[in-house]
Amino acid sequence: RRAMIPIHLAGPADSGGEAGDGPQFVSMYEKQPEIYPRAVSGWFATWRWTFVWLTQIVFYGLAWLQWGGRQAVLFDLEAQRFYILGLVLYPQDLIFLAALLVLSALALFFFTAVAGRLWCGYTCPQTVYTEIFMWVERKIEGDRVARMRLDQAPWSAAKLARKSAKQAAWLAIGLFTGFSFVGYFTPIRELGADVLAFDVSAWSAFWILFYGAATYGNAGYLREQMCKYMCPYARFQSALIDKDSLIITYDQARGDPRGSRSRKASPAAQGLGDCVDCTLCVQVCPTGIDIRNGLQNECIGCAACIDVCNGVMDRMGYARGLIRYSTENGVRHGWTRLQMFRRALRPRVLIYGAVLSAASVAFAASVALRSPFQFDVIKDRGALARIVDEGTVENVYRLQIMNRTEVPQTYRLAASGIPGLVLAAPPVTVAPAGIESLVVGLQLPAEAAQALRGRSAPVVFELTMLPRADGQAVVQHEKSTFLVPR
User: Fold this and answer.
1) Which of 480, 476, 463, 478 minimizes the C-alpha distance to 381?
2) Interatomic CA distance for residues 248 and 441, integer angstroms
3) Residues of the chain with pLDDT under 70
4) What is the pLDDT of residue 11?
5) CA distances from 197 to 194, 206, 424 (A)
6) Using alpha carbons only, what angle is made at residue 234 by residues 231 and 235, rounded to the nearest 5 degrees?
7) Using one digit for the tens of pLDDT, what is the confidence trace for 17-45?
């Protein structure tokens, strides 16, 4: 891992030097120092691991959940059907995906304005998998000091065994993650049987390896580099927060001047603040920043520094909260928690909240009121109109009926709009989550067509989903035109 640094040009070493004469280029890359996060326990660490368990139970387990004899969540790209519990979606329903993306963006704006990078600190996949990989690393190689010593030690059989065990565990987690991800696009039970039989298709194998390698590389090696340099959220969060947003803050007025001291010594008598300058807040930070320097865009809001600092304060007999969730105005003015919470209901938050609530209600209503079927009418352009028996005018149409339910449905077709219009089409049955195409002809007797010669008249197709034993009939209408030749 390397970071770009400015180019420095070296001038002549001295007036008569040979080796130093002329410009010289110094390497423009510098190796990024390794970060060895220290293990931490506390209230926020417990919450962080709670979200790790919740997100991974959902991710790994949801693919195996069955719903009505099929996989509960399956994005079947080959069949062009997306199953989400009892909902069946088609490519035409991508508007719902767009709506979900809009809702996600609004939720991100809202929660960032209220409490900073909560998403990053607790539920972001990069944070979650980094936490899992670091847990494996600590179990195999030890905590911070032990890992630093192991990396600095010369290679030996013991070091090779530990490093190999860690890499094997990381690879296993990465591959299982890739397998689970692909299992949302290919039925996971079939995919599992194919993997065990070493009979995986080339595309499935590629994507399992691709996402497995991405998980392995991002959580095992890139880690904080993803958050600091590659994630755009760190860059635009400053536009979303203000001085009343709840963020992780260091109480400089209380903590400075910093310095070590005896537990029995009075910090006031020594002219010191409550910060003992133990640097544990830096050692536990997964991005390696010093929160005492103020809010930085590298801070992911994981609150590890709060937990470790509270532990130090407990051992020293000081009040907790030297590092805490607070607002910039709250720290500056010494506000109570209630005063800060009152400031949370400010115009920015209210606007975000109102828009998010309205969009959520609209999305839920559109899903709940979604019709159980869809049909389209396309006029046959190969023969716009033709004269059949005894001067009867016929127009041909192509209909496509899409059954959005997971039970077979029967539909009855009718047409209206012109007096005397005749449609001869028997009821049609469409398979569960199936699509049926059919060709129908609308006929208009010669007497009725005489008044419309050389004109086109609007017609309406009515498709009725016949009710089942305990249901009601559902009707949809589609407009088209009927052409009468001269």
Assistant:
1) 480
2) 70
3) 1-31, 468-471
4) 46
5) 5, 17, 53
6) 100
7) 444 556 655 555 556 788 999 999 999 99
